[in-house]
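--- STAGE predict ---
source: upstream dedup step, 1 unique chain passed
mode: sequence only
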Amino acid sequence: MRIGELSERTGTSRRMLRYYEEQGLIASTRCANGYRDYDELCVDRVHQVRGLLDAGLPTQTIRQILPCLGPPGRIDIPNPTPETIALLERECERMTRRITHLSRNRDALRDYVTSVRNTLLPEAGPSSRERLTEVETAR
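--- STAGE serialize ---
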């Protein structure tokens, strides 16, 4: 399939797909006219790459574990080296710190929204937006 179809099927921009290829995360062959041609398996691979990137893994780490990726959510490394294990442990710790940070921010945002909603109950009268403006102006 060409890059446009891969882009549509994965929801990933063409520019990002080219970047993934440049980083060695996906591969294509070239047609006689120079167009990239991607294998059907690239659809799943792009989804895996995006998931790992969203989880916070850098492309260098993804490139190292890509050959070990099985079905989504599974990594099988037949003979892991101590360096590979250390790398994965560091990434797990980094992800844990990121999750903690994101959870803290989510909770703070949720508390703020709850507070604002409790202050500005949707009753008869001004709209919530107008009441929010009134509260912000009063501060």
